[in-house]
Design goal:
Strand order of the largest sheet of chain B: 5-16-15-14-8-12
Largest sheet of chain B: 6 strands, antiparallel
Mean pLDDT of chain A: 81
Oligomer: heterodimer
Number of helices of chain B: 5
Largest sheet of chain A: none
Order of helices and strands of chain A: HHHHHHH
Distance between the termini of chain B: 54 Å
Radius of gyration of chain A: 17 Å
Largest interface: A-B, 60 and 48 residues
Structural class of chain B: alpha+beta
Mean pLDDT of chain B: 69
Structural class of chain A: mainly alpha
Low-confidence stretches of chain B: 31-57, 79-91, 98-114
Number of strands of chain B: 16
Strand content of chain B: 35-45%
Helix content of chain B: 10-25%
Low-confidence stretches of chain A: 1-7
Number of strands of chain A: 0
Number of domains of chain B: 1
Helix content of chain A: over 70%
Number of domains of chain A: 2
Strand content of chain A: under 5%
Number of helices of chain A: 7
Chain lengths: 166, 246
């Protein structure tokens, strides 16, 4: 009986890491710009999941819960890391093998946390404004403003890059 | 600029294989991570004494009259373990560290989308000839942590009828932990205060900042029918919630 429980727990670890590990790691890496911090947050999020074992309606609910926990932890970590670390663009190739994405990832990582989080949830995870509002516990108008400002900032940075020929 | 490319860029990130394996092993060894069953412990006694002393200080009531309350207020904090209660005390106010990120995260995905900071603090009144106490929160609500057992997941109808909005469970345990909404006011008999362990859920603006003027009104009714009241102002500094008599 005990063996069955252990086996079942191991399967659950495999399942959640395989299903959500890369998704959470990519979000956390973009938010935190640091591999070790991103790994810590993702691992901590999974441990919370297994410890709390919340009840979910479906897999989307489960995914949203994990994203909520992970982004909250990222925000806390950013809050306490007074000296902001930023990943060198050359290190991006360790995680993203396709060079053509590195510029965009670099620009994205340099955005303020609150803007990049909404951009990630909207453009990467496909959440609608009202769903993001629930996940981040902010108003829908705040989500819209952050999306708009995030887009403006990205545009602006691309424009400057082209102007000065970086 | 094509913002849809953000998806391609971010999804091109892969978790390194070594990290994947390390993570599975670490999570698998999570038995070293203890389950935090919250329990009630009195917040540092200096905290309690501070509030009690402050209640004895003469103050001006709403009519501008000098008045001295005949009851004391003691605050208790709810903590994950004895070492995590942080009560930074100054000469004027008591601070309670916010340590509820898990609960925040869980609640945020819940049904009504409310945005609350959970303070994990409860109040207790002491005095002579007190019959009952009514607490009224100007913004937010009182909540109660509840635990119940069930052989199958509780139905949403039952949870609604019990005003339990959020539920967690250890797999296969049949034990469920949840959060019951009490409302913005409740009255408790003086001798039954120990049975009502309600804590505070205070709304925030989406960035964990609470309004400036959240007040808990404490109205004490004495056996002879007279009553006294006192307002407690809830404030915020950095990541702490502060209580101060108004």
């Amino acid at each position: 009986m005990l063996q069955q429980v252990v086996w079942s727990a191991e399967l659950e670890v495999e399942r959640i890491v395989d299903a959500y590990g890369t998704m959470l790691f990519s979000i956390c890496l973009v938010i935190l710009c640091n591999e070790k911090d991103a790994e810590d947050v993702v691992q901590d999020t999974f441990i919370t999941y297994l410890t709390k074992s919340p009840t979910f309606n479906d897999s989307e609910h489960e995914k949203a819960w994990l994203i909520t926990i992970a982004t909250n932890r990222c925000k806390n970590m950013r809050r306490y890391n007074i000296i902001r670390k930023h990943m060198d663009i050359n290190d991006l190739q360790l995680y993203s093998r396709n060079d053509k994405h590195h510029d965009l990832l670099d620009h994205l990582m340099r955005l303020p946390t609150k803007h990049k989080v909404v951009l990630l949830l909207h453009y990467v995870e496909g959440y609608k404004v009202d769903e993001i509002a629930k996940i981040l516990t902010i108003t829908t108008s705040a989500v819209k403003k952050r999306l708009q400002r995030g887009r403006e900032l990205l545009r602006e940075r691309y424009r400057k890059e082209n102007e000065y020929g970086f | 600029m094509d913002f849809e490319k953000i998806k391609d860029a971010v999804t091109s990130i892969e978790m390194p294989k070594a990290m994947d394996e390390r993570m599975k092993e670490n999570i698998g060894n999570r038995k070293t991570v203890k389950v935090n069953h919250k329990k009630w412990i009195p917040a540092a006694s200096v905290f309690a004494i501070l509030l009690a002393i402050m209640m004895g200080i003469p103050y001006f009531n709403k009519n501008g009259e000098l008045q001295v309350a005949n009851f004391t207020i003691t605050a208790y904090a709810l903590s994950d373990d004895e070492n995590q209660v942080n009560t930074t005390i100054t000469s004027e106010k008591a601070a309670i560290e916010l340590a509820t990120e898990d609960r925040l995260g869980i609640v945020s995905i819940g049904g009504d989308g409310d945005r609350f900071i959970f303070t994990d603090v409860m109040l207790k009144i002491a005095g002579e000839q007190i019959d009952s106490i009514t607490y009224t929160l100007s913004e937010g609500k009182f909540i109660e942590d509840v635990t119940f057992t069930s052989t199958k997941p509780p139905s949403s109808e039952w949870l609604r009828s019990e005003r339990i909005y959020y539920v967690f469970s250890e797999p296969g345990s049949g034990v469920y932990e949840g959060i019951r909404h009490i409302g913005n006011t409740y009255t408790v008999s003086y001798n039954e205060q120990e049975n009502y362990k309600y804590t505070l859920a205070i709304p925030h603006d989406g960035n964990n900042v609470i309004p400036d003027d959240v007040i808990i009104n404490v109205n004490v009714t004495y056996s002879d029918g007279t009553s006294e009241q006192q307002d407690i102002l809830i404030m915020q500094e950095a990541h702490s919630i502060l209580l101060k008599l108004k």
